[in-house]
């Protein structure tokens, strides 16, 4: 169904999964057709068209850390630490 609506992040994916379970693919497809405008409608627009509110999803499920993200953060921290070190030396003179 991601080919019919805009899905930008994990929360959107969870919302779409929830919507598919609760209203079904046919209802979603009909709502997409009814949405005016060009291109894919936002998922929130489709939910409004269907008259449904979505549940709040747990934050833990949305912010799962990955090894690649942890490595990138470590690299960023080391770059920032290296840049901060000369500034401390100059300030102590």
How many individual helices? 5
Number of domains: 2
Q: How much is the radius of gyration in Å?
A: 22 Å
SS content category: mainly alpha
Shape: elongated
Explain how this protein is built.
The protein has helices at 10-23, 25-34, 43-50, 59-62, 67-92. The protein has 93 residues and is mainly α. The longest helix is centred in the C-terminal third of the chain and has 26 residues, at 67-92. The protein starts with 9 loop residues before the first helix and ends with a helix.
How would you concisely characterize the structure shown here?
This protein is mainly α and 93 residues long. It has five helices and no strands. The mean pLDDT is 83.
Q: Which helices and strands appear, and what pairs or packs with what?
A:
Blueprint: H1 10-23, H2 25-34, H3 43-50, H4 59-62, H5 67-92
Helix pairs in contact: 1-2, 2-3
What descriptors fit this protein?
93 residues, mainly alpha, 5 helices, CPPA
């Amino acid at each position: 169904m991601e080919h019919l609506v805009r899905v930008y992040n994990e929360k959107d994916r969870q919302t779409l999964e929830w919507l598919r379970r609760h209203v079904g693919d046919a209802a979603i497809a009909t709502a997409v057709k009814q949405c005016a405008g060009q291109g894919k409608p936002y998922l929130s627009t489709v939910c409004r068209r269907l008259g449904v509110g979505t549940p709040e999803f747990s934050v833990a499920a949305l912010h799962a850390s990955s090894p690649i993200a942890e490595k990138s953060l470590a690299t960023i921290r080391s770059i920032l630490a290296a840049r901060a070190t000369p500034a401390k030396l100059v300030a102590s003179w």
